[in-house]
Write a structure and sequence with these properties.
Layout: H1 7-13, H2 16-57, H3 63-70, H4 80-97, H5 102-124, H6 128-155, H7 165-222
Helix pairs in contact: 1-7, 2-6, 2-7, 3-4, 4-5, 4-7, 5-7, 6-7
Subcellular location: Cell inner membrane; Cell membrane
Organism: Methylomicrobium album BG8
Subunit structure: The Tol-Pal system is composed of five core proteins: the inner membrane proteins TolA, TolQ and TolR, the periplasmic protein TolB and the outer membrane protein Pal. They form a network linking the inner and outer membranes and the peptidoglycan layer.
C-alpha cells in the first residue's frame, strides 16, 4: 500500500468529485485575490482624488473655473469630480434657461448629483458581492468535498475484514485538504470584504456630505441676480 501522504500525492489520488471541489475552490481563491488587488487600488485612487478635489474646492476657487478645469480636453474626471460636474452642469443649464425658480434650479442640480452618486456607488461596489459569496460559501464547499472523501474512504473498507488506520488515513487526509483549501479561499475574501465595505461606506459618506454642502453653495448662487 502506498503510504505517501504528501499533499500533491493526496490531491492526485483523490476522487474526481473531491478534485473538482479543490479545483473550484482554487479558482475562486485566485479570482478573489485578483479582485482584492484591483479593488484596493481602485479605492485608494478614489480616496486620493477626493482629498485633492476637496482641498481645491474649499480653497476658494471659482466654481466656473473649477468646472472648466475638469472639462478641459484630455482630462478624465473621476469619482467626486463627476458628481460636481453633474450638479454644476445642470445648475448652469437651468440658470441659462431663464424664468426658472431658484429652488427648482437647486433641486434639479441635486437630483443630477444624486444620480451620479448612485452610478459611482454601483461602480465601486462591483466585485464586492463576489468576495462576500466566496467568503461565506467556500468553507461549506470544502466541507462537502471532505464529507464526500471520507464517505468514499469508509466505503472502500466495506470488503475489508479488519480495518486499520493506515488504510483510512490517506482517504481522510485527502478529504481534509478540501476543507483546508476552502478556508484558504474564504478567510482572505472575508477580511477583504469587511475592509473594503468599511472604506467604501466612509467614501460614500464623504460624497453625500459634499452633495449637501454643494447644494448650500448653489442655493446662495441661485438667489443672486
Amino acid at each position: 500500500m502506498n503510504t505517501d501522504l504528501s499533499i500533491l500525492h493526496l490531491i492526485k489520488e483523490a476522487s474526481v468529485v473531491v478534485q473538482f471541489v479543490m479545483a473550484l475552490l482554487v479558482s475562486a481563491s485566485l479570482a478573489s485575490w485578483t479582485f482584492i488587488f484591483s479593488k484596493r487600488k481602485e479605492l485608494k485612487r478614489a480616496i486620493t482624488i477626493t482629498d485633492e478635489f476637496e482641498a481645491e474646492f474649499w480653497s476658494g476657487v471659482a466654481l466656473a473655473e473649477l468646472y472648466r478645469k475638469l472639462t478641459a480636453k484630455g482630462f478624465e474626471p473621476e469619482g467626486i469630480e463627476k458628481i460636481f460636474l453633474a450638479g454644476y452642469k445642470e445648475f448652469s443649464r437651468m440658470r441659462q434657461a431663464g424664468n426658472v425658480e431658484p429652488i427648482v434650479q437647486v433641486e434639479s442640480a441635486q437630483r443630477a448629483m444624486r444620480i451620479e452618486l448612485s452610478r459611482e456607488l454601483d461602480r465601486l461596489d462591483e466585485h464586492l458581492p463576489f468576495l462576500a459569496t466566496v467568503g461565506s460559501t467556500s468553507p461549506y464547499v470544502g466541507l462537502f468535498g471532505t464529507v464526500w472523501g471520507i464517505m468514499n474512504s469508509f466505503r472502500s473498507l466495506s470488503n475489508v475484514k479488519q480495518a486499520t488506520l493506515a488504510q483510512v488515513a490517506p482517504g481522510i487526509a485527502e478529504a481534509l485538504i478540501a476543507t483546508a483549501i476552502g478556508l484558504f479561499a474564504a478567510i482572505p475574501a472575508v477580511i477583504a470584504y469587511n475592509r473594503f465595505s468599511t472604506n467604501l461606506d466612509r467614501l460614500i459618506g464623504r460624497y453625500e456630505l459634499f452633495v449637501e454642502e454643494f447644494v448650500v453653495l448653489l442655493q446662495r448662487q441661485a438667489h443672486q441676480k
